[in-house]
Design brief:
There is one protein chain. This protein is mostly helical. The chain contains 9 helices and no strands. Helix 1 (22-44) packs across helix 2 (51-58). The longest helix is centred in the C-terminal third of the chain and has 29 residues, at 136-164. It is elongated.
Length: 218
C-alpha cells in the first residue's frame, strides 16, 4: 500500500468539559473533510471518489461525512466554492497593493492566482479539472464562478487602468476571453504537468492580457 493510500489517524476532539463548542468542532471536521476530499478527488478523480474514501482519508467515520454532506456531489460543490472564494480573496488582496505601473498591477493579480494554485494543488485540481465531470449542477456552478472572475477583472480594469493611462477592455467579453484562456492554461498544467511549475505560466498570462488590452486601446 502506497503512503498516499494509508488513512490518516482519526481526528480526536476533546470531550466532556474540555470539549470545544459544537460549532468549533463542526468547523474542524469540515475543514479536515475538505482537505481529505481535495486529496481523494485529485488522486482518484470525481467518478471514482467515494464518501468512504474521503472519510478514511480524513480519519473520520462515514457517518461524520454524511453529517456535513448529503453525497460526494454536495462535497465537491462545497469544496469548489471554498477554493474559488480563496483564489478570489487572494487576487483581491493583491489588487489592493500599490504599484508603479499598470502591467505590474496585472502581474500582482496573476502571481496571486498562480501562487494560490501552487500552494493548494489538490484543491486547484478540484477547482479547475475535476469539477468539469461532476454533473450539471457543477457545470452551472463553474460557469457562474468564471463569470464572477471575468466581472471582477473587467471592473478592476475599468477602475484602475485609467489611473495609469492604460487601456481598458473593449467589452466584458474581452475580460471573459482572458479568464477562459487562463483557466485552460492552468487546467492543462494540472493535467499534464507542463510546465513543471504552474507559476511558470505568469509571463504567458501577462502577454495574453496586455496583448488584448493593447488591441482594445489601438
Amino acid at each position: 500500500m502506497a503512503d498516499s493510500d494509508v488513512p490518516r489517524p482519526p481526528t480526536v476532539v476533546p470531550r466532556g468539559r474540555h470539549a470545544p463548542p459544537l460549532e468549533v468542532r463542526l468547523d474542524v471536521q469540515r475543514r479536515r473533510l475538505f482537505e481529505a476530499a481535495a486529496t481523494v478527488f485529485a488522486r482518484r478523480g470525481f467518478a471514482e471518489a467515494t464518501a468512504e474514501a474521503i472519510s478514511r482519508e480524513a480519519g473520520m467515520s462515514k457517518a461524520t461525512f454524511y453529517e456535513h454532506f448529503a453525497n460526494k456531489e454536495e462535497c465537491i460543490l462545497a469544496l469548489f466554492d471554498e477554493a474559488a472564494t480563496e483564489v478570489m480573496r487572494q487576487m483581491a488582496l493583491a489588487a489592493d497593493q500599490e504599484t508603479t505601473s499598470y502591467p505590474e498591477h496585472l502581474r500582482q493579480g496573476t502571481r496571486a492566482f498562480l501562487r494560490t494554485l501552487a500552494e493548494w494543488p489538490d484543491a486547484a485540481q478540484t477547482l479547475l479539472v475535476e469539477i468539469i465531470g461532476a454533473g450539471p449542477r457543477a457545470t452551472e456552478r463553474r460557469d457562474a464562478i468564471l463569470d464572477q472572475f471575468a466581472e471582477a477583472i473587467h471592473h478592476n480594469n475599468a477602475t484602475v487602468a485609467p489611473r495609469y493611462g492604460a487601456p481598458t477592455f473593449a467589452s466584458r467579453d474581452d475580460a471573459f476571453a482572458c479568464v477562459g484562456a487562463i483557466v485552460e492554461l492552468a487546467s492543462r498544467q494540472l493535467r499534464t504537468g507542463t510546465p513543471a511549475d504552474i507559476r511558470e505560466l505568469e509571463p504567458v498570462i501577462d502577454r495574453l492580457m496586455l496583448g488584448i488590452l493593447e488591441q482594445a486601446g489601438a
